[in-house]
Amino acid sequence: MPSFAQQLSFNKSKQNKEMHFNYTWSDHQDQTTDLAFTLPLRQLNTQNHKKFIPDLAQQYVYIELHKAARKIDPKEARVQIQHRGQDLHIQVTSRSNNLLDKWQRSMNQSQEKALDQYLKDNYYSHFRSYMGQKAIKPDHLRYISENTAALLPIAQAVYDKLPTNSETRAYVNLVLSWVQSIPYNELKNRLTSNGAGYLPPLSVVANNQGDCDSKTVLMASLIRSLIPDVKMAMVFLPNHALLGIVLPFRTNEQTLDIDGMDYLLMEPTGPAKIPLGEIANRSARDIAGNMYSLEEVL
Fold first, then answer.
1. What pLDDT sits at residue 6?
2. How large is the greatest C-alpha to C-alpha distance in the chain, in angstroms?
3. Cis omega before residue 228 (within 30°)?
4. How does the average pLDDT of the chain come out, rounded?
5. Cβ distance 32 to 8 under 8 Å?
6. What is the pLDDT of residues 94-113, one digit of tens each?
7. N- or C-end of the chain: fewer Cβ atoms within 10 A?
8. pLDDT tens readout for residues 3-16
9. Beta carbons of 20 and 12 less than 8 angstroms apart
């Protein structure tokens, strides 16, 4: 049985326009490790994530569809847009079948474009589970991309704890043990929660807590901060998440073949102390049963 990543102490203090953080935890070798860093308050105060509310998204799309409809010459076609439960119904009428097809396609494209724009504006993305179920989830990849620079003080503080000329996996393992020690919040159902409970990377740090998606995004962001070109992938299991990374691995370590390339797996969630290349039994069963979906970290 793996031991648990124990956070021994955590404190933060505000000074001028900065927040100072101090952590102490027990790492994978059961060694007491400490970490200190400073982040600008302006960054911490701007990291919020709003729950996706379908009615607000639908209203946005409804307004954009009316804008698109007003651009159509009424001599060519007329458009009616109606709310029908959770959906919008677009009815196009025209005396010409060709014009009818043209403007029906155009309105359908406008509907897709409007939803995509709403998702982008609010840091959401489309998601498809391993069973093909469609959902809306936080745009994890965008959060990783936009937080690598902001998290560099943390990444550098971790790196400075390592002996000179340490291997890349030593950095990854030290970051991993720290992220695992951050208190865990249970992940709400990814398909139905509409992003409720998700915290962006800086919010996980500031609040000293996060669910598995939030902690996995933090882990990927910290790796990307110091190793910008390494290949990574988020692995979404039922109500859980792993991170894969392309690094040299040993024959007894857990990997996942993605497009012909072996990704070394890790469990950022905790609280179990599981080093790079090992995953929980339940995660291994889900992987073996192909019960996962992927997002490549660009």
1. 76
2. 78
3. no
4. 92
5. yes
6. 999 999 999 999 999 999 99
7. N
8. 666 799 999 999 99
9. yes
Dist. CA 248–CA 231, nearest whole Å:
12
Name the CA dihedral angle for 165, 275, 145, 49, rounded to a multiple of 10 degrees.
-140
Residue with tokens 């569809």: 65
167-201 exposure pattern, b = at least 16 Cβ within 10 A, e = fewer? eebebbbbbbbbbbbbebbebbebbebbbebbbbb
State how far the alpha carbon of 76 is from the alpha carbons of 68, 70, 82, 92, 102, in Å: 14, 12, 20, 10, 10
What's the confidence (pLDDT) of residue 287?
97
Long-range (24+ apart) CB contacts under 8 A made by 90-96 are 90/65
- Token couple for 80: 């009616």
| Residue written as token pair 């027990």 | 26
Q: Which class for 15: exposed (0-12), middle (13-18), buried (19 or more C-beta within 10 A)?
A: exposed
Q: Residue 46 corresponds to which amino acid?
A: T
Kindly calculate the radius of gyration of the chain based on its CA atoms and give it in whole angstroms: 23
The pTM (predicted TM-score) of the whole model is 0.91
